């Protein structure tokens, strides 16, 4: 749990996730895609070219496809990612008694609104918890930099910002994930760990740095999860790691999830279980890309059953895990590379 000393009255926790369109309309989906894809840590082109391509070509074209995907994960209370992220914040606040809010990296001004609210409440120390257990430029890093920039805009003398380290191997996160997987896994199943994909040019600068080596952290999560008693006692369980959500022409981490789900039936894997450890809360990449598109590809290729494991979402297990993670925050200079 976060500290319960006298200083805790000055403390709040801010979760940070990617975000979703504000409404299920082409205009809002396009606006969200522009916010997302013009981030240089998502598309690494020079700013003028990146903005021209995204605003003029990519966002208008992708919005028409994306809105159909969002329709599949939109509830009466909005998109799943926003719904579960805020429910998780509420559960953590109930468990800890400390104010917990959830900001969204690509939703217009949500971070600024939340930080202003916390300052008005007299909160001076903010513990930032990215809802990404692993360090990647396009998830953890961009989220932390975004909140830092907003906090500086509000006035550094009024706000102390610290951040949790990547928690890919935290025992309570590992336990939450292992127990979740075990509920739907049988002896002899093939377990597919489908991680968020990133291009190799974002991997190479951090190779060998334990705090930021993304493939190394993914492998550590898989190792620890499989060693947990909830899974280690399941007979005949096989597994592999793959990476999803590729786009563009760069070389990416491999193998690709799409390639593997199409190939596995011919390799004798007639029932597979797929989990997405990169995301705490369900989103397009988990529910739609795996639970709908990958499942369709797998069955079409001759597979018999693809079992999609939902993300940890707002479960009590992950709420307690993240509160424990938040009890040991670091300075931003410790979690971010030098020079950022």
Helices and strands in order:
Elements: E1 11-17, H1 26-37, H2 47-73, E2 74-75, E3 78-79, H3 80-96, E4 100-104, H4 110-120, E5 125-130, H5 137-154, E6 160-163, H6 171-182, E7 190-196, H7 200-203, H8 214-227, H9 229-232, E8 238-244, H10 257-263, E9 271-275, H11 284-300, E10 305-308, H12 316-325, E11 330-331, H13 332-335
Parallel strand pairs: 1-4, 1-5, 5-6, 7-8, 7-9, 9-10
Antiparallel strand pairs: 2-3, 6-11
User: Strand content of the residues, in percent?
Assistant: 15-25%
Question: What general form does the structure show?
Answer: globular
What's the pLDDT, averaged over the residues?
95
State the helix count. 13
Distance, first to last CA = 29 Å
| CATH class bucket of the largest domain | Alpha Beta
Family: Belongs to the ferrochelatase family.
Keywords: Cytoplasm, Heme biosynthesis, Iron, Lyase, Metal-binding, Porphyrin biosynthesis
GO molecular function: ferrochelatase activity; metal ion binding
GO cellular component, one term: cytoplasm
């Amino acid at each position: 749990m976060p500290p319960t000393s006298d200083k805790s009255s000055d403390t709040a926790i801010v979760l940070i996730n990617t975000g979703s369109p504000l409404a299920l309309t082409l205009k809002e989906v396009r606006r969200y895609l522009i916010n997302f894809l013009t981030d240089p840590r998502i598309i690494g082109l020079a700013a003028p070219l990146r903005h021209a391509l995204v605003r003029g070509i990519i966002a208008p074209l992708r919005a028409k496809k994306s809105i159909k995907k969002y329709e599949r994960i939109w509830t009466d209370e909005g998109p799943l990612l926003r719904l579960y992220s805020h429910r998780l914040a509420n559960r953590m606040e109930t468990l800890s008694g400390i104010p917990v809010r959830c900001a969204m990296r690509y939703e217009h001004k949500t971070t600024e609104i939340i930080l202003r609210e916390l300052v008005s409440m007299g909160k001076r120390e903010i513990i930032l918890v990215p809802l990404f257990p692993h360090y990647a430029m396009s998830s953890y890093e961009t989220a932390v930099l975004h909140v830092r920039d907003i906090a500086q805009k509000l006035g550094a003398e009024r706000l102390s910002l610290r951040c949790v380290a990547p928690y890919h191997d935290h025992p309570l996160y590992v336990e939450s994930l292992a127990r979740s997987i075990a509920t739907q896994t049988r002896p002899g199943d093939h377990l597919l760990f489908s991680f968020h994909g990133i291009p190799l040019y974002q991997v190479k600068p951090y190779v060998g740095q334990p705090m930021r080596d993304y493939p190394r952290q993914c492998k550590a999560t898989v190792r620890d999860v499989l060693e947990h008693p909830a899974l280690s006692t399941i007979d005949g369980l096989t597994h592999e790691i793959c990476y999803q959500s590729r786009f563009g022409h760069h070389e990416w981490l491999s193998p690709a999830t799409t390639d593997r789900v199409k190939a596995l039936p011919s390799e004798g894997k007639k029932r597979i279980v797929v989990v997405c450890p990169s995301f705490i809360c369900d989103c397009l990449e988990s529910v739609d890309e795996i639970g709908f598109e990958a499942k369709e590809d797998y069955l079409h290729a001759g597979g018999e059953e693809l079992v999609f494991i939902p993300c940890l979402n707002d479960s009590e297990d992950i709420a307690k895990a993240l509160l424990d993670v938040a009890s040991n925050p670091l300075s931003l200079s410790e979690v971010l590379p030098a020079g950022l």
